[in-house]
Amino acid sequence: ATAGDDFVCSPANVAGTWGYIETATIFDAGVGYPYASVGSYTLDAQGNLSGARTASLAGTTLRATIAGTATVNPDCTGTENLNFYDESGNLTGQAVKALVYVNKGKEVNKIITAPSGLIVAVTRAKRILPGSKGLLDFDRDDNGRRAFGCSGADLEGEWGTAMTGMIMTPAGAVTFGAVNKAVYDSEGNYQGTQIRSINGTTGTVTFQGAYTVNPDCTGTKTTRSYGPTGALLNTADQDFVLVDRANEILEIFTSNVRADGVALPMIVTGQSQKLFPRGAQALD
């Protein structure tokens, strides 16, 4: 750190709770398949890492728990060695990542370096509580339960979103991008407008949906989109994690079904930010 800085990269200073978003291409027999994931993890001062993630591989949703170790150097570079387990506890994959912490340890950029030749993956992670203790280190109530955590009060307000990825249609994969403006209430509801581009053809839709948020700042959403005449276009589910004191949402689509019942798997991620950041109410 340079003179005047109050942050030094060390295992203790990068410990805490993190949310992340990852985009990748996975290669099998020379063929590349689109991949994306969103998750959260806790890193302790001894370099032990644990968490969970939701991924989409060519439109197939894959959930896993994560366990591993991490190192950090005084120059803010480091490594992660990760193991991934399915819901039955079976080891399903491993990865080694090279990383660099930025913004005084509030964010970290990563790239997978092993297994070599099988995946090109870039990860962006942000602290759930930047500049604060990790969420799991907060005071607990008399029964040992966590006394602080995210709630609907943290999502209440106006949000702007950028989405990007691919949709798997019966005719093949198409490229998808969108920008949303939405309003969330504190009771688990939201609505808004989306300007989208599908293979370069743009259009505007409205949407409404319901969300749930957990004390660990993860959650789920179900969104229904409507065309200009008000007809239902599709219903989609997403997993998300709140980061940056609940001023940013990182999300991934886990299902997408047209109004006619045809499933259109998505490899699409989104990043939403509050129009007027105010910090996580339930954590203040």
Give a quick summary of the entry:
By secondary structure, the chain is mainly β.
Give a written overview of the molecule.
- Strand 3 and strand 4 form a beta hairpin.
- This protein has helices at residues 11-14, 152-155, and strands spanning 16-28, 31-43, 48-57, 60-72, 77-85, 91-102, 107-114, 119-127, 157-169, 172-184, 189-198, 201-213, 218-226, 232-243, 248-258, 266-274.
- The protein has an 8-stranded antiparallel beta barrel. Strands 9-10-11-12-13-14-15-16 form an 8-stranded antiparallel beta barrel.
- The longest helix is centred in the first third of the chain and has 4 residues, at 11-14.
- It is mainly β and 284 residues long.
Question: Which structural traits does this protein have?
Answer:
single chain; 284 residues; mainly beta; eight-stranded antiparallel β-barrel; 2 helices; 16 strands; 3% helix
- Uncertain segments: 136-142
Classification by helices and strands: mainly beta
- Content of β-strand: over 45%
Reading the helices and strands in chain order gives: HEEEEEEEEHEEEEEEEE
* Average residue pLDDT: 91
Gap between N and C termini: 29 Å
The number of E-state strands comes to: 16
Main sheet properties = 8 strands, antiparallel, barrel
Number of helical elements: 2
The backbone outline, from C-alpha atoms, is globular
Helix content: under 10%
| Gyration radius, in Å | 19 Å
The largest beta-sheet arranges its strands as 1-2-3-4-5-6-7-8
